[in-house]
Structure formats: C-alpha cells, structure tokens
Amino acid sequence: MFAVIFSAADQGDLLRGAEARISDFIQTIIQAFVSPEKEAQVLKKGYPPSFQAAYPTVRGVKADSGLQEWAQKFISRADFAGQSVATDRSPSMVTPGTARVAGYERGIYRRDGDGSTAPGKEFFRKRLDEFAEVMNPKDYVCKMVQVGPTRLMLVMHRSYSHYMVEELRLFPQFDVSLEEMQKLKPDAISFMGIPAKTIGEDYRIGYFLDEDSAGTSIPVSWVDAENITDYMGYLKKPVLTVANERVKAIGGMPVHGSALTITAKNGLRKTVVMGGDSGTGKSETIIAMTNQIIKGLGGAKNIESVELLSGDMLSLFEGEDGEMYMMGTESGDFMRLTDIPNEWQERMRDWINSSSKTNLDDKTNPRATINGICDPNVFLSPVRVNVFANINNFEKPNGPAFQEERDPANLLLDTYVKGYRREKGTSGDQPNLFASIKYSEVPDREVLLSKYQEDFDRLLGWDLILAKSGKVKTSILSFKDVPGEVFRARQMVKDLFVGKYCDDKHTILEARYEVRENRFYVTIRAVWMQSLEDSRKS
Q1: pLDDT reported for residue 12
Q2: Residue 288 in 3-state DSSP?
Q3: Which of 85, 192, 61, 62 shows the shortest CA–CA distance to 139?
Q4: Is the pLDDT of residue 175 over 80?
Q5: Which of 5, 107, 100 lies closest to 425 in space, CA to CA?
Q6: Apex CA 390: angle with CA 386 and CA 394, to 5°?
Q7: N or C terminus of the chain with fewer C-beta within 10 Å?
Q8: Which candidate, 302, 296, 310, places its Cα nearest to that of 263?
Q9: H helix intervals, 178-281
Q10: Would you tell me how many other CB atoms lie within 10 Å of the CB of residue 469?
Q11: Cα three-residue angle 391-98-107, rounded to 5 degrees
Q12: Containing H/E element for 367?
C-alpha cells in the first residue's frame, strides 16, 4: 500500500469567465427540440434552432426474442440515436449549478428481493411493461454505449438527451448495426428521466436484476425526472452500477480506481491499477506518480508514452494464463480542476477547453468532464496489470510514501472492496463510519469495532439538508431500513454516542430513534452542569 499527500492551490478561478455567461444560451439551443413550445420560445428570442435535431434517429429496431416482453416492446417502439457526435470536438459546455449531494434516499440501490421483504422481479417487469405500452416514443431517445465489457442501452427523456454530448460523452457510443436492428440484445439497460409513477413513488430511483429467457443477468436501473442532476458524479452512477453488476455476473471484479500504462524507450512497459474511492485523490496521485516515474527513468526524454486507461472506474478479470487483466470504462476523466497543478492544466489546455464543465462557479468543487484522455481502442481491450496499489488518505506515510503490500489477495479482496477513505467534502460525500472510528482517538474504538465490524455502514447512512446555496447545511444520521436490524442499529448508536463528548462543552446523555422520521436524535448536557452536580454529591 502507499499513501499520498497532495495539495494544490485553488485554481478554479482560472476557468471561470465568459463561458458561464453564455451557459443559458447554449443550453436553450441544445434543448430546443424538447417540445414545440420550447422551440417557439427559442425562435421568439431570436436564436436559430440549429440544434433542434441533435441526433438523427431511427425507429423499428427489433429486440432479441430472448429478452423479457417489456424490453422487446420498448425497443420496438423507441427511437434510437444514430450518428454519434459525442467523440467529436464540441464547444465547451458550462452547466449551471444543480444538486451535487444526495442522501440515502437518492442512492442507486438494488430494489428487488424474494417478494417478502422487497418486491420480486415480476413487480418491476409488470411496471415496465405498462410503461412500454403507454410511453410516447417521441419523448425518449435510446443510445447504445460501451461501459467496459458491458453493452448498455441508455434510455433518456429528450429533455436530458444533451447529456450525450456533455457529461455522458465519456462512455464510448456506437451505432446499432444493420444486423443488430433485427435482434438487439443489450447487456444492461438504464432509464433516465422517466415519470416518478413508472415504478412507483417508493421506487423513484434504483435497479433490479432482470434476466433473459436463458437466465443471463440483465441489470436495469432508473432515475425519475425529478432526481436527474447535471452533476456527472451522480449522473453516471446508475449507468456504472448496472454495468458493474454485469461485470460481476460474468466473473469480473469492478474497481473504483484509476489505471495507467507507462512505456519507456528501453522497452520497459508497466500497467498500474490504483484503487481509491471518492475524495482519495486519484487524479492528483496519477499526476504525482507520473512525475516521479519520469524523474526516476531519467526524464521525459526516456519515456515513449504515458497512457491513462481509466480515470475513475475499471474492471478486473483473470486470464486463461492466470494473470490479471483490466478494462476501463470511460474515454476521459471527471476531474476536479482545483487538484490539478498549473503545469498539467497547461499541458491539458486543449482538452480542458473542449470539455463539459459542471458547476464551474463552485469554488470548492469545479469539475470538468474531459473527453479524449483515454483511448477506447486501448482500454476496451484486456490490458495485463503489473502492479496493484491502493490510495490511503487516512494516515500519513510511516516511512516511504509508496509502501509494499505483502499480500496482494488482501489488497484486492479486502482493501479494494471496503473502499475506506477520508471524506474530502467537495462532493457532499459523508464519513465512512467504520473507517472514521478505526482512525479516531475514541477510547473504546477497539471494543466497538470488534462488536459491530462492518455493520456500522451497512445499517447507518446520512440524510443531507441543503442550504439555499446548495451547500450541505446539516448531515443527519439515519437507519438504512434494513429488515430486522432496527434494534441492532439503535444499540450501535447508543454505544457510539451516549456518554461521549459532542464538543468541549457538552456531553451526550441519550440517543433515541424517531421511527416516523427515520432519524436519530441525541440529548446533550452542558459540562458545567454535570460538574456542578458532581461537586454537590461530593
């Protein structure tokens, strides 16, 4: 394992300016084809409707007969986007500020079960079958995208289809071939912007594991129109979630992390996979590591190439030769610009200028969706991995920043899976309770960890309350509504908080659970009051 400490001055202001002023203009033009009413508004303002047909479409595609009936109906009625423009150099898109954080209720979680504690597959199939019958084909557009080894059908309401040339440009797109038009069979399906009532008010976001007639898993995700966000970090979650479920179904292992290949002119070639959850510093670690390797090899004159294979998500597979291979998922990176040194921003200036920027006016988390950094011709083919590493941002290095892990299996099957990281706070990410306790100074932390292990994060989550500015105002600890586990969750909270200091002036007397609100509340007492009582007793 290795730990990296990296900091950079806030450079977000460098990329703010005239682009933000024309954001509304660009967005209005791109969405002009949403409805006749919108188009009329654009024409009334004097803007030419040059983007009213951003994609040529084709209808009449036939589904593979092995798919569920609802999927066959939908594919036969839907419009499929034709020629892809997402890989072309496109104008810089600056999306306005939107919700960047979400509580547990907006997570992409699996919704199907055995029919007792959660609805079975038939419930979701029935709802989607009804939707396929009544939906207006003119309201939706489909596009096939390649997410690692997964061929995914993206179904978007037309009012959100501009994402295909903005944030979702990172997923390599492909056109439905003449052969596939007769028997299209996606590996996974993701709906974006469907009505809230499609699956039901209690299931506005989520996914379930459907399957074809042969029993092959076909994961299906959905996000209703009210929960769509321009923030790429959340926009791609439903896509990556079902793609990762497919990876697991075919024997692979999804990894939240980055990968790069460095080739020296002397023929030395090494591919490194770095696991790291949100906020660990994957982008800056790649830059720092690349600089160190170039320096160690005697300078850039001795380097043939440095290829980024994955910026955020990848999958691992064991080859027939017993070696480990990786595949990437995105043709670029969703990059926090404040983490990138000036010299690297200059090297990447052309990419940054043609990127899609999300919340560029946010000083703590200005992001750019930069396309073209990763080559699909490389990362969509298996690449042998030479080094596995994990980014540890919890502890300062005890010795060299790059430390060897003696047991690779432990790194892959334990460290990667748990994904511990110190939350950075830029994306509204919330603390991992198990890791926070493990690395804290809580006196009884060993007892707590031994008693509850991973149950902390399995049973407890965070609901966020936002201020008008969009910033997180309050984080509220809540129960994840795991069947049969509410009493254990209550006891965990009591053991965690009762008798502890909540600050220098107050202690926690009681922790109680409010069923209606699904939240935990504590009763606190001023330290001076406790001291006064103690002195009276003595």
Answers
A1: 36
A2: helix
A3: 192
A4: no
A5: 100
A6: 165
A7: C
A8: 302
A9: 232-235, 237-249
A10: 9
A11: 55
A12: strand 367-371
Helices 121-134, 69-77: crossing angle, 10 deg rounding: 20
Q: What are phi and psi of 514, to 5 degrees?
A: -95, 110
Residue appearing with tokens 């017993």: 322
Model pLDDT, residue 430: 56
- Does pLDDT of 409 surpass 90? no
Residues in a beta bridge with 383: 326
At 401 the pLDDT is 64
Q: Give me the domains of the chain, ranges plus CATH numbers.
A: 2-11+253-412 (no CATH), 53-250 (3.40.449), 433-535 (no CATH)
Per-residue pLDDT, 27? 45
Please name which of 428, 377, 116, 385 lies closest in space to residue 252, comparing C-alpha atoms.
385
Q: Which residue do the tokens 């040339």 mark?
A: 165
Average pLDDT, the chain: 74
Instruction: Bin 324: left if φ > 0, else alpha if -120 < ψ < 50, else beta.
Output: beta
The structure tokens 């007969």 sit at: 65
Q: What is the distance of C-alpha 502 from the center of its chain?
A: 32
Lowest mean pLDDT among 40-44, 199-203, 229-233: 40-44
Do strands 269-275 and 387-392 pair parallel, antiparallel, or not at all (unpaired)?
parallel
Bridge partners (DSSP) of residue 80 are 58, 142
Q: Ranked by mean pLDDT, which of 207-221, 368-382, 515-529 comes out on top?
A: 207-221
Q: Give me the helix-helix angle, 445-452 and 486-497, nearest 10°.
A: 170
Give the tokens for residue 412. Answer: 């892959």
Question: What is the phi/psi pair of residue 508, to 5°?
Answer: -95, 120
